Structure formats: C-alpha cells, structure tokens
Amino acid sequence: MNDQPIQPPRRTRFIDVADRVIRGGRRLGVVGPAQLDKHFLMDQAAAATGLDDFGDRWFERPFDALLESVKHEARLNAAGDFSAMKQFHHVLRDRLYAQMWFKRHPEILARPLKNPVVIVGPMRSGTTRLHRLLASDQRFAHLRSFETISPVPRPEFEDVLAGEKEDFRPKLAARIMKVARLANPRTLSIHPTGPYEPEEELGLLVASMWSMKHDAQWHVPSYAQWCEGENPVEAYRHMANLLRLIGWSQQESSLRPWILKTPQHMLDLPALLEVFPDARLIFTHRDPKQVVGSAASLAWNQTIIYSDHNDPAQTGRQWLGKTATMIERMRAARDAIPRDRMIDVQYDDMETDWRGTMERVYRFLELDMAPAVDGMQRFLDRSARLKRRPHRYSLAEFGLRADEVDERFADYTATYGIPVEGPPAPLRRLVAE
C-alpha cells in the first residue's frame, strides 16, 4: 500500500524556461520591469490607442483592489507579473476601443437584449455542456471563444464588415490558446475549447476588472473579499453593452435571445437581474464533492503558472469556501425570483439522459426541441473529439475529505435533491463540465 500523500500536478518546464528568460531579459534591460500601477497602465493603454475615454470609471474601484491584492498577496513570478501587465493592457485597450465604437455607432447601444437565457451554477457543475448544447440551436445568439478573449473589434473592423479585411481576433485567440496549452497541457481536458467554440461571457465582466477569474488565476484573497461586499451592477451594465457591440459585430439579429453563463452569476444574481430583468434562469446542480474537487484542480492548474509559491491545501480551502459562498448567495437571491422564471437541472440527469433533460429545459423555454437535436448531437460528437484526455482530480490532493464536504453542503444537497456519492474518483472522464 502506498502511504505517500496524493500530490497535485506540477507546472510544465515551459513556464520555468519562460520565467528564466524574462528574468534574464530584465537583468539585461531588454525586458521592462513589472509596473503594476493603475495610472501607469491606463496611461500606457491611452498612448497605445490615441484614446482617453475609458467609459464609466466605476471599474477603477475593483482595479485598485485587484492591483493591491496582486502586489501584496499573489507572489507572482516573472512570467506571472509579465502576463499580468499584458492582461491589464488588453482589458484597458478594449475599454477605450469600446467607447470609440459606441460614439462612432450610437445605434449599438440601442440594440435590445430581450429574454436572455442565463445558466447559473457552480464552477464545474455542467454549465459548459448545457451552454454549448443550447448554443447549437440557431434560434439563440451566443458568444464565441475569440469574442470573450477579445470582445471589442479594432478600429479597422468596418473593413472586415465590408469584406476587405479578415478579423484578426480568431487568429489571436488561437495563438493565446496555443501558449496556454504549452504552459499547461491539461487545459484541454479541464475546459476543451477552440476559437469558434461557444464560450461564456466571463471576459466581458473582466472588462470591468470584476470576476472570480482573478481568484482562479492568482492568489488574491483580499480582492475576493472586497468584491463580496460590492454591488457590481455597473460591471453588468458594461457587460450588456459589450454584448450589444458583439451582436452588432456579428451582424446578429437582435431578436434572437442570448444564451449566457458564467459561475460568477451565482455571486451576483441581484445585479444580473437588475440589468436583465426578463432573464430566464437555468440552475445547474452537482454533488459538491465533485464541484469542489474539480474547481480546486482548475484553480491549481492556473495559479502554478503565475507563482512559485502555491499550497494545495490552501487552494482546497479557498475553493471549498468560495463554493459555499456562491451557493449561499445564489440561494438567498432565488427567494425573490418567480418560480416560472427558473428551472433546476441536475448534472447526473444530464449524464444519464441528456436528451430527456433537454426536453424538460425546452418545455420551460416554451420551444420545440426537435429543430435543435441534430445540432446538439454534432456538438456532443465534436466535444468528445476535443476532450483528448480525462480531467484527473481528487479532494485528497487538496487536503480535503469527502465527509467534511458532504457535511458543509448537506442542507444544499437535501433542498435541491442533488445525488451524493462517494469521494471523487482519481479519474473522471466528462464530456464538458
């Protein structure tokens, strides 16, 4: 019997090499030092674009909290702070370009966003699969992966609409994904995707320096705590305007309702419903042991890229607590939502009978499912090809026990009738979590 503790995966040598190269470049003066200062970053983005209107300045509040947490808690390595600067520059540049488009084409902000279908569930609870099944139905509008990475077209995009140029954003997304896979080859097994795959709108909330993406990328507990006390309605308003811009850039009919999803909505349901008052909500549920184990694995595989100081037990506790907060806030917000506006879907039902479960979803949406079935089957076939390796994870590698997770979420699982099994197996093979 092997008594050695289960260890989470190590990062790849690619990151170690990149980190050494950046450090060497800084010593030689050919790579600039990390400058995680808000004014420097905003001035740099303004100089790069020749623009100075960032839109609503609410985003500076979470930006201040995030930068403070990154500088004092994240303990980034050279590759980490280099990529953080690039990420912030990308987000700030997109805010400037977004305001440019809103001024150039005021009709963008007049586009309606009627009756969106919003999937709400914890990380790793089957939201991606449900989202992509619905996105395969042409009666709905959806984001593509390259649009959540780069939601805002560049100034020459009108030439793309005229057929004179090619939109560079899918190629950029492909390059970013290639680098991400080099940095972490487990990416495809955890979240299979491609530039044109349906994707969640998390990047549209990151545009306001808001969202748990930052928690899953860096160790930023004070930022996460700060966010829990804030009302993010302005972030959701900006997200809605970016959806309008994306719909315009897709030349998408504004009559087709959007399919939306990101686990962030569990924390922010009141803000979501203030901005999208006619949203129809699909709540997903899964055994919390699988949710916590898989979420901790996802976060671990991100944070080990950006920092040399990672503790798997700390990651496990963080995502146990984060999952509990998400569920508590979701449950509290549901009390104010009319029952006919929402439906609950079990992960296990999707595993055993996806078609029957989707038929129930379509009855809720008052739509005939028959026209969508072929597209859904094509998605499932494509997803099986994308998911080249199983996602391996366990509670034990993050210092957690099955019984403590069961006890922590006993009321939640009982209230929503969630099937609870034994601890996560070391090997899980899922179509898309």
Descriptive report:
It comes from Qipengyuania flava. There is one protein chain. The chain is mainly alpha-helical. The protein has one domain (18-428): P-loop containing nucleotide triphosphate hydrolases (Rossmann fold). 55% of the residues lie in helices and 5% in strands. The protein is built from 21 helices and six strands. It has helices at 13-28, 38-49, 60-74, 78-104, 127-135, 145-149, 157-161, 169-183, 187-190, 202-206, 213-217, 221-228, 233-250, 269-275, 288-306, 312-334, 347-352, 354-365, 373-386, 402-408, 410-415, and strands at 117-120, 259-261, 280-285, 342-346, 391-392, 427-428. Strands 2-1-3-4 form a four-stranded parallel β-sheet. Strands 5-6 form a two-stranded antiparallel ribbon.
Give the structure's gist in a few sentences.
Keywords: Transferase. The chain is mainly alpha-helical and 433 residues long. The protein is built from 21 helices and six strands.
Share in β-strands: 5-15%
- Rg from C-alpha positions? 21 Å
What is the CATH topology assignment? Rossmann fold
The CATH H-level superfamily is P-loop containing nucleotide triphosphate hydrolases
Ranges where pLDDT stays below 50 over 5 or more residues in a row are 423-433
How large is the count of helical segments?
21
Largest sheet: 4 strands, parallel
Helical proportion?
A: 40-55%
Trace the largest sheet across and list its strands.
2-1-3-4
How do the SSEs run, as a string of H and E?
Answer: HHHHEHHHHHHHHHEHEHHEHHHEHHE
Q: Tell me, what's the shape? A: globular
**Count of domains:** 1
Total strands: 6
The overall pLDDT, averaged over residues, is 91
How far apart, in Å, are the first and last alpha carbons?
Answer: 32 Å
At CATH level 2, the architecture is 3-Layer(aba) Sandwich
Q: What's the CATH first level?
A: Alpha Beta
By secondary-structure content and strand pairing, the structural class works out as mainly alpha
GO molecular function: transferase activity
Pfam family, one: Sulfotransfer_3
Keywords: Transferase
Protein name: Putative sulfotransferase
